[in-house]
Amino acid sequence: MVPVNIQTLIVSAAPTPSIIVLQPIEEAPQQGKYRIVPIWVGVNEATQMGVALEKARFSRPMTHDLFLDALTNLDACIDHVVINDVKGSTFFARLALRQHDRLIDLDARPSDALALAVRQKAPIYIEEDVLERASFPYVLKNPSDGVAEHELEEFRQFLEGIAPEDFEG
């Protein structure tokens, strides 16, 4: 399993899917090349991810907050999330819950699992074979200069240029 973080979230208007972009944490770029894994999600799922990333709070609990509150009251927490498979453009995830010494493994949509992990600051992993099959290289043009605003815009355009069909194979 390779640890990843959420590099960015690109929210689009329906019917265009939004994109959650994962990037391996430990991967050192070679010649400015990074690998990214784009996961297409719906507008509602992207909104929930945005809420989690921004740590937004509302007067009434949202679904993910309700789930985490129930877990807390059952002395459980999110242990970790694993993106464990991809078929075409559909990703699969496992949500691991910890309740004392017991680890509970649940099938989950990646968008839900990731939104929960972000809320609880739980680690996110991707299986190595999934990373190999679903990642795209991204080249940072001036690695010694860091990421400039124009490079971020190029990155966004690159992501918007890939489609779920690019995974068909």
TrEMBL record:
InterPro entries: BFN_sf, Bi_nuclease_dom. It comes from the Bacteria. One of its GO terms (molecular function) is nuclease activity. PROSITE patterns: BFN. Residues 1-138 form the BFN domain. It holds the Pfam family BFN_dom. This is Bifunctional nuclease family protein. The lineage of its organism: Bacteria, Bacillati, Actinomycetota, Coriobacteriia, Eggerthellales.
